[in-house]
Amino acid sequence: MTATATDIPLLSIKAQNAALAAELKEVVGRVLDSGAFIMGPENKAFDAEFAAAVGAAHALGVDSGTSALELALEAVGVGPGDEVIVPAFTFVATATAASVLGARPVFADVDPDTLTLDPKSVERLLTKKTKAIIPVHLFGQPADLDPLVSLAKARGCFIVEDCAQSHLAQYKGRPAGVFGDAAAYSFYPTKNLGAAGDAGALTTQSAETRDRLLVLRNCGRTLGAAYSYERVGHNCRLDEIQAAILRVKLKRLPAWTAARRRVAALYHAGLKDVPGLRLPPLGAGGTEPVFHLFTVRCARRDALAEHLKRRGVGCGVYYPSPLHLSPAYAALGGREGQCPISEQACREVLSLPMFAELSDADAGRVIDAVRAFFK
Q: What is the arithmetic mean of pLDDT over 310-339?
């Protein structure tokens, strides 16, 4: 079958932005007219609104999710000679955030159901050099935080939550992102809450950590001073236009999240009985996922992907190789079999179309296309 103009994309930024076009243009114009482009009123308002939305005491906008991870680790004291435990199955920024600070990422395996950090694997890797653990709430699935927080407390290390894909996710009745010492969010355009370019945020429950982050993100400036520098810092500020755009979208995030959960429920109902297809949990261990991606697993992943593309259904592989086997980290001596669940996941994962504007009818087309492959 040849793909047509009625193709179902893996995601759709245009559909979301089209519905908000007038309001987005209005707020961008407001910022341009104001002449306040850096650290202005839009930033201040967004910080307060985002903190309230995700249940955090403090939030700070920054220029990307990657910067958020780096600043969070630096704020808790990660530096040369330290070890930071990260999942082998995640986007590379989780690991590079440790590397750029001179620390060594230590790759742990993931849970076979949620594909998030496995506490048992983490426990085996803890050493006296472990400074921090980064649970990644991958694809919008919250990691199992209770045992990870307990391990960190027992060993005197820090928890930095990677919430790049998990805006509004819940773990045992509380928002993901409030369990650790800090949390990092991404607003890359394809995220559940997406900017019109690179953007991110940090959250923390600690006023002391917030103050360190304020200094770090703004060139090391002493708070309230223009040209007094108390430490070496970074220029990682969120610009006013992005803050204004994010404020518009943040108001819609609860409804968009509900829509993603509706699509996930439709996929589950339509595909749960397909042999040879493993679905992501709708909620496990008291979690409420937000389905940044709806990622299935199939031993014949590549063939399924080709079949879906011929049927006009978008799909994608996140991620095709585990980080411990990446050339970027070859010097760490990673080997096949080191993280078997992560390695298997990389061979099997396939993400189906998932975005808030996906109609029930198109979700049904996706279901029919997947079922047809297995017939």
A: 97
Tokens 């607003």 — which residue?
Answer: 187
Domain identity same for 216 and 272: no
Q: Are 156 and 69 in contact (CB under 8 A)?
A: no
As beta bridge partners, residue 351 has 295, 316
- Vertex 60: Cα angle to 132 and 251 (nearest 5): 120
CA atoms within 13 A on the CB side of 167: 31
Query: Which of helix, strand or coil describes residue 342?
Result: helix
- The domain tally of the chain equals 2
Chain-centre distance for alpha carbon 354: 15
Does the pTM of the predicted model rise above 0.90? Answer: yes
pLDDT of residue 226: 87
Cα 33 to chain centroid distance, Å, stands at 33
Q: Classify residue 239: in a domain, yes or no.
A: yes
Q: 169 and 311, same structural domain?
A: no
Q: What is the CATH number of the domain that holds 287?
A: 3.90.1150.10
3-state helix, strand, coil in the chain (%, to 5): 40, 15, 40
Which domain range does residue 127 map to?
16-250
Which residue, of 229, 250, 271, is where some domain finishes?
250
Residue bearing tokens 């759709």: 12
Q: Which amino acid is at 308?
A: L
**SS3 for 226?**
coil
Indicate whether 3 pLDDT > 90: no
Mean pLDDT of 121-130: 98
Residue 162 forms beta bridges with which residues? 136, 184
Q: Is 329 helix (H, G, I), strand (E, B) or coil?
A: helix
The last residue of a domain, from among 231, 250, 269: 250
pLDDT of residue 47: 98
Tell me if 154 sits within 8 A of 133, measured CB to CB: no
